[in-house]
Amino acid sequence: MIIKDHWKLRDFREGEAKDLEVASPLYDDYFWMSAEVPGDVHTTLMHHGLIDDPFYGQNDQKCRWVEERIWWYRTVFTLDEAPRPDDKMLLVFEGLDTFATVYLNGAELGSTDNMFISHTFEVSRELKPGKNVIAVKFDPVHAKVGGKAVSTFWSGFSKERVWTRKNQSHFGWDWGPRLLCAGIWKEVRLEKYDAVRIEHVYARTAEVGEMEALVDISVELTSWDRRKTYSVLVQLLDGESGEVTAAETLEISGTAGSGLSGLAGGMSLAGGTKLRVSKPKLWWTHDLGTPHLYELRISVRADGITMDKRSQKLGIRTLELKQRDADGKPAFTFMLNGVRVFAKGANWIPIDSFIGAVPDARYSRLIDMAKAANMNMLRVWGGGIYERDIFYDECDRLGILVWQDFMFACALYPDYNRNFMDNVAKEVQQVVKRLRSRTCLALWCGNNENDWLYEALHASGDIPHPFYGEKINHELMPALLEQLDPSRTFWPSSPYGGNDHNSREEGDTHNWQVWHGNIEPRVFGEPQLQDYSVEGLSFKKFKEDRTKFASEFGMHASANLYTLHRNVPQTELMLGSAEMMNRNKDINHLKGVMLMEGYTGIPGNLEEYIDFSMLTQAEGLKYGIEHYRRNKPETSGALFWQFNDCWPGTSWSVIDYYGLPKAAYHYARKFYHPLVLTAEYTPGDAELVLWGVNDTRESVSRTAELVVYGMDGRQVYVRTFAAEIEACGKQRIAVVKLDDLLQGLDAAEAVCVVRWMDGCGEDNFYYFCDHKDMNFRPVNLNVQVNPEERSVTVSSDYAARMVRLEMDEAWLDWEDNYFDLLPGQTRVIHVGQKEGKGIPWNTLKVSALNGASVAMNGRQPVTE
């Protein structure tokens, strides 16, 4: 039974009410406000108009009182009949955020102090026929940890967060506001069992051959009847045909218990078997093949009766992280089914500040967008949450690997405290058991940046303390993972490896030379220095990076204008206003200005800021990622920071809070294409090098074309080149001198396009000067709209830079956007709305950086 109805919510000040009185079934909650579960306090208050939208203006400051109060949830549910004497009734809370005390019919069942794990209570005696009352009290964070916060310990963004096993970014980060949520953020269920319950299923591929695969299955049970012997049927069904492809039965005796389960005297039992799968259909990332999924079914029987059953999706695949190449040199390469993977993707943060209220559909939309952008890996960053099941469901289904951090980030953690470490151990065990059968899961990582930042800040004298938290990811986690999931690599931290945990010589790296101006390389014992200058922050620093795996790097861009309009008062919608500054939680705002200064020039108004920041982010990521891909196999992955936003702010994301892509998202679809044609060129170079990079499992023979145009569309250079690129390989196709390319044309008036002649992928545009030094001609855009076909047709008289299509709606699904357009070229762009809403054609606006905007007047576009 899912308990989701009739929930109510009310706040109390400390000392205002006695707990047992509020928890009593007789307590009068008639005038409490209704609440959604799953959900949270803030969204409930917004729904009832008791707080203003925290995302609008600076309302996040106006609702700070919410985190100071005690909050109570109550609900009533009906039980048709009393449990039988042998029934075990379990009340399960999948997620409580965070310091909660649970009551049923006035009885205190227990307290919780960890948002990341589920909490189960055996309640057979406390239930009664008819109405039953659940009450849950949430204490404020400060009441639980305020006295423990040690102000001298290093912890980015907040001191008290390190004592709370809670979404660390709730306390505020450099891309999101402090909104300290509380509430029942996951499902609540009442489950009924007789003698046995399936606790965990661990399924992993042991071997893969051409004709047969071996799959190991482990089953953990809780038994309340030690006299029984349980028959466990394990079946693997083809996900397409539904036919049983393998099956085994194992017997688990109740007399061979391995220990108490903690559930009302239940005994923990375990057993395992192997499935032999003939002619296995392998799971691949979507760029390498088909992410084929089987269905694994487990059923437990005793005395001829099915007692419990479970099913889950399972892909057959092998996956390892190679840390040495064929010559024994350091590497960081994921091998999927024996094939070298170049990891292409981004870092994933919580998709909302109020995560409990987010519908599953938003996850599906975002992960589908990751696939559409040719991403094959997402990193679940360690300052947020272990994601909901829908996240991993979609990654399994779509063929996207997951780099999974544990939730520790940018801080020292109190590993000297026994209670804290017991809590962490319980968290690690439960999280690993929940996720270890996920086909998409590629790597366990201990934390985000703790090892690197501690060493660097300790060397500079900013942290005088021991490395508190080191025992978590260097002792506790590896010991638990060796026992619970030996099938995957555990990586202690990100970044990690080499003589400096951010060394380019070994392990993975976070390239914050760009944007933060870090001076690299450094070695252990040296302080981490920054160069805050136009040159020090420039994205051209990427070309110096020979990392093995770039797991973080990026730069800011504005949210879309529609998003800003919804959340910034009209009087403040201007560059440099207090409200616009509040959108940017990264303290040193000059970094973004200097990054633009080096490429686009400094923006003079809000429209230029939106345009310049988006173009700089898009071109900067393209410059870096194409460099990393050309550097394969020495470099084996590029995961930029960051994919999504948790609120409508200015950040490193490529998709803003309302699901509207920035320019960099559409660029990503092109620079992450499995077969990319890329030009190695930096303004000032005397030659251009043409490369082909192939991330597929097949060798390819293609013809590449390189064309240089003037602003009027005149071709000054055109040539084709034969390319033969091996599977998962690259080719240096040609080297062409700049003078030959330009044929006397001014470099500031040239447009270079490289493309595959057979139409594979999309045209790739390059310029021989930084944007601020280009001489684009003013263009006139011709725009035609066909609402019936949901399309916009755009052409231009001269070369148009970054053509943008926008309308006043969230989750618009543009086929392409922020694209360059050659003179005489016509683009037909289709558009949808991912929530199924209508298209507001009357708000359409089409613009280019070098042209006047075209807006709709009725059904006819007019130039503004």
Folded structure, characterized:
The chain is an alpha+beta fold and 864 residues long. The protein is built from 16 helices and 46 strands. The protein has a six-stranded antiparallel β-sheet with strand order 2-1-3-9-6-7. The protein has a six-stranded parallel β-sheet with strand order 27-26-25-24-23-30. Strand 14 and strand 15 (244-253) form a beta hairpin. The longest helix has 25 residues, at 606-630.
Spell out the blueprint of helices and strands.
Elements: E1 8-12, H1 19-23, E2 33-34, H2 41-47, H3 59-62, E3 70-79, E4 88-93, E5 96-97, E6 99-104, E7 107-113, E8 119-122, E9 130-138, H4 141-145, E10 183-184, E11 188-193, E12 196-208, E13 212-223, E14 229-238, E15 244-253, E16 259-260, E17 267-278, E18 294-302, E19 305-314, E20 319-324, E21 330-336, E22 339-341, E23 343-348, H5 360-372, E24 377-380, H6 389-398, E25 401-405, H7 418-435, E26 441-445, H8 450-460, H9 470-484, E27 489-491, E28 509-510, H10 534-537, E29 550-552, H11 561-567, H12 578-582, H13 590-599, H14 606-630, E30 637-640, H15 663-671, E31 675-680, E32 687-694, E33 700-710, E34 715-725, E35 730-737, H16 738-742, E36 750-756, E37 764-766, E38 781-786, E39 791-796, E40 800-806, E41 812-814, E42 819-821, E43 826-833, E44 845-848, E45 851-857, E46 860-863
Helix pairs in contact: 5-6, 7-9, 14-15
